[in-house]
Amino acid sequence: MKQNQHQILFAFIIFVFGIFHCGSGVELTELPIGGNIEAKDKSGINVNLKSFPEPVLLVFFGYTYCPDFCPNTLAKIKAATEGFTELEKKQFRVVFVSIDPERDSTETTTKYVQFYIQNAVGYSFDMATTNQIVKQYAAYVEKTKDGLSFDHSTYLYVLDSNRKTRKLIKSTDEKEVISKTIRALSGDSVQSK
């Protein structure tokens, strides 16, 4: 898919998301992007998001050298879930996928994300696999002209127990949106098939 087509698809998905996002409650709908990731990371680990026991996954794309959005978003997730009970903390996991596999290893990425959230895992895939996953999630990633940083989308992709994407959370959303979404989806008995 060419860059323009990719951007048009993403804009359409955001438009649809905006329609369902309106309202006071937490809207959970099945979105046609994202989903399960099955791939081997750079350290040789076979990754399958369906293997995690948590009913809710928050998938986030970023990189460990990110100066602002990544640390801010991870800090917001931490703040949103600090008041969770021990049982509630077992209902979700953060999955951080590096968009900078040249500099990020899986070990470094996991340490980075666990600095903010203990129940988190980071992955670094080879470039071809990273590009495939970015397309699967309709995420935006572009290396800056200096080659040292990236412009990238900063959405949290909320996946249910079947690893269907049920919600996109914007980096500008209040932390309560994160906590309410995790609670609503972990207690959602009517999961997508």
Automatic annotation (TrEMBL):
Protein name: SCO family protein
Thioredoxin domain location: 28-187
GO molecular function: metal ion binding
PANTHER family in UniProt: ELECTRON TRANSPORT PROTIN SCO1/SENC FAMILY MEMBER, LINALOOL DEHYDRATASE_ISOMERASE DOMAIN-CONTAINING PROTEIN
Gene3D superfamilies named in the record: Glutaredoxin (3.40.30.10)
UniProt cross-references to PROSITE patterns, sorted A to Z: THIOREDOXIN_2
Signal peptide span: none
Protein family membership: Belongs to the SCO1/2 family.
UniProt cross-references to InterPro entries, sorted A to Z: SCO1/SenC (IPR003782), Thioredoxin-like_sf (IPR036249), Thioredoxin_domain (IPR013766)
Disulfide cross-links: C66-C70
Keywords: Copper, Disulfide bond, Metal-binding
